[in-house]
Amino acid sequence: MGWKICGRRLARQARICACPKNIARRGAHIITVAMKITAAIKNAIFASAAALTFLCGCADFPQPGPAPEGAPESVLADAPRGAAESGGLKYFPYGADCARYGGGFPNLPSGAPDFEVELPRPKNPATVFAADFGFDEANDDCAAAINRALAHCRKTGASKLALAPGTYRCFGSRGIEVDGFEDFEIDGRGATLVFRRPSDLSLLPQHAVVEDAANFMVKNCLRVRISGLKIDWDWETDPLGAFVRITDKKPAEGGKPPYFDVEFIGYEKYPLYGRPMPVQVMMPVSDTLDGFCEGAAFWFGPSEGHFGAKSEWLSPNRARIYHSTKAEGVPVSDAYDGKFTERAGAYNHRAAKVGGMYRLMHYYYGKNAFNLDSNAHLSLEDIDVYSCRGMAVHIAGSQKYWKLENFNVVPPKGGARRPCTSTADVIHSADSLGYCKIINCAFSMNQDDIINLHDRMTFAEKVSDRVLRISNKRGNRYFGAEAGDVLELFYGDCSPAGYSARVSEVRGEILELDSPLPEQKGAGFWVSKSSAATGNILVRGCAFENFYGRAIFQGKNVTVENCRFANGPSIPLKFQLAYTVDKWAEGGGCSNAVVRGCVFENCNGKSDKTLGWVAEIFSGATVDPESGFKAPARCASGDILVEKNRFKNLRGLAWLANVGENLVFRDNEIEISSDSAESYAACVFVGDVKGARIVNNTVTARFPAECGVLASAKAEDVVAAGNVLRAAGAKDSGASVRR
Predict the structure, then answer these.
(1) CA-to-CA distance for 421 and 410, rounded, in angstroms?
(2) Which three-class secondary structure state does DSSP give residue 394?
(3) C-alpha distance from residue 690 to each of 55, 120, 178, 321, 633 (Å)
(4) What pLDDT, on the 0 to 100 scale, is given for residue 662?
(5) Contact 608, 586 (CB under 8 A)
(6) 226-254 b/e with 16+ CB inside 10 Å = b?
(7) Measured between alpha carbons, how far is residue 61 from residues 102, 104, 323 in Å?
């Protein structure tokens, strides 16, 4: 029946105890409590014993903390089966009377270094006014007017282009192109640019459509500042999506496919009525339409121009969606045929909730708001992106030293409530040279990751002594190797092969190198370009509320400081190395990262699992078994510090670290109040790690709870000490609880 012993609340305790399957668990728990009284006495004796090398293998740590115990069944009730059944987990329970840890910390991670993003140094004080080139509220193609004004700035050497307050339509096929400017500024002066641009119907792979044709294409610039703008989309003619309610559903019968009917909320006549309607994604949302909720989402393919699931109009504000049938008579990509199988249709039919509210999206990838390519010292400040088709910001090339400050991707205030802002990621880096600041920004109601900063990699197999063949399906079009590039190789477990070589020739998916390759292990090598360097990242003072997706960092030297993550449906923060053999391959792992002074509140609302665990923060690596390896190497991650954060209404692990070295989790405050929390809520799990310090954290719960640090049998040099468990409302340590 899946009832939890200690992770559930008092209101459910009677039902839990009455469940026959849990009588044994309850008895085992009582025994566990008794054993812990004895264990506390033992800990006082063992704490000074030099033989506890697992706890502290170094004389620099005079307070190693209590000895580990066997993990209680009550904590592991919801743990991944492998972890619960392994029998090798070590458990360090949080206690009521723990002395504060006073030992040292070797090599504390420092995070992002201090660096400056330089502002323009104008050589010519002249200002050009876009209004002189057709920038007018009566013009349907104000992007073209801005491009004419930019051309004049280039010709005359002016240092500033000024727009004007007002709302301006940008309905042409081209976006705004800022190319090759130096010491230049675009001052929006509060202008709102409303875009509507035609879709590319060539059905390019989803990774290819994000590379050009953005609303703002900024490239090859030095010391440029863009500020004072508002970016929006034409919802009146071409809405990006809508809130809908499922009013009915029917299974497949009589040779007819299954379907569900939807009603468009807030419309008497939907703008797309009578026209073919793309149906790419449907996602459950709260009845108040201001965030996401539990329930299944329906994915029908995100590429630009792809119409997804078949639909037909029933009335001006009602439509029927055949969720297991591809759209007919319009462009559809065969890349998503797996979304329209009989099995997928059966799942969609079961999961669809009649009466439930959903966000129906017509678009996913497409014309991004800003593409930033190979700029240095670029600042985007005081900009609101109310909505855009695609990503709000896409980074590529040799981009370095760039800043987003008071750059907000949020719905506009007032008017009808909108279902989304960016229809894909808010910020996405596919290659860069790093040095990025994201300061005092707010992101909300997006449709993919809030932040995903990585470099493109690929997977390749050895063909001969000096030849690799890219086996990843995205191919070299995605990876972008060219003659002269220096490549570095890693094995499938993410460990370095100790090899680098220069590309001498590229022939399709064949890469010829200038030195002999090492022996291949498994199915091939994970390959990166040595020029890839998306690191040195500072995220400070940002608010991520009612957001979708995660903040993912896959580079060196990262600080996330004084930020708020609230009301997200999945794990909010990842420091990782991850790839697949046949699809995406992103990032080279994260190291020297600091998370400090942040608030995590009501996150992971859909209990999204990482490696089988519900967690708030993940650090480590994942591997694709098709590579020939089952587990990542310990060296794939490391040097992570998580300190002085507050976790409110935590549902699962505070931190999941499956591999890594030098990990510190200290001085954090954790509150558990959700009825849907996992049995291991507030715990920290460390897997194949070396050198972990989980110390001086406080857990507050409104119910008696069991929690602590879980360490795998592979973990070495783990110290868990000074961690306190208290009852809600406790004013001093005397009110602490430990069940």
Answers:
(1) 6
(2) strand
(3) 11, 46, 48, 52, 12
(4) 97
(5) no
(6) bbbbbbbbbbeebbbbbbbbbeebeebee
(7) 8, 6, 59
Closest CA to 71 of 723, 713, 547, 718: 713
| Structure confidence by residue, pLDDT tens digits, 405-444 | 999 999 999 888 999 999 999 999 989 999 999 999 999 9
Two tokens, residue 602: 């009501």
**Nearest CA among 215, 178, 363 for reference residue 281:** 363
In this structure, what are the phi and psi dihedrals at residue 287, rounded to the nearest 5 degrees?
A: -65, -25
Q: Looking at the predicted structure, is the pLDDT value of residue 649 above 90?
A: yes
- Residue 365 neighbours by CB distance under 10 Å: 27
List CB contacts of 574: < 8 A, sequence separation 6 or more.
Answer: 550, 551, 552, 553, 610, 617, 618, 619
State the pairing for strand pair 309-315/318-326: antiparallel
* Mean pLDDT, residues 516-524: 95
pLDDT of 37: 35
- Residue 315's CB is within 10 A of a number of other CB atoms, namely 12
Q: Judge contact between 388 and 426, C-beta under 8 A.
A: no
Q: What is the pLDDT of residues 475-506, one digit of tens each?
A: 998 899 999 999 999 999 999 999 999 999 99
pLDDT score of 10 more than 80: no
Given CA atoms 513, 514, 520, 525 in this order, what sign does their dihedral have?
A: negative
Q: Tell me, what amino acid is at 42?
A: K
Strands, E assignment, 456-561: 458-464, 467-470, 486-490, 496-507, 510-513, 525-529, 537-540, 543-545, 551-553, 556-561
Can you tell me the distance from the alpha carbon of 580 to that of 339, in angstroms, rounded to the nearest whole number? Answer: 19
Q: How far is CA 619 from the centre of its chain?
A: 12
Residue with token string 């490391």: 638
The mean pLDDT value for 42-67 works out to 39
How is 658-713 classified by DSSP, letter by letter?
EEEEEEEEES-EEEE--TT--TTTT-EEEEEEEEEEEES-EEEESS----EEEE-T
Please write the tens of the pLDDT for every residue from 667-677.
999 999 877 88
Q: Are 169 and 236 in contact (CB under 8 A)?
A: no
Type of residue at 373? D
Query: What is the rounded CA–CA span in Å between residue 474 and residue 461?
Result: 14
What mean pLDDT is predicted for residues 257-280? 97
pTM: 0.90
CA distance 503 to 486: 6
User: How confident is the model at residue 13, as a pLDDT?
Assistant: 33
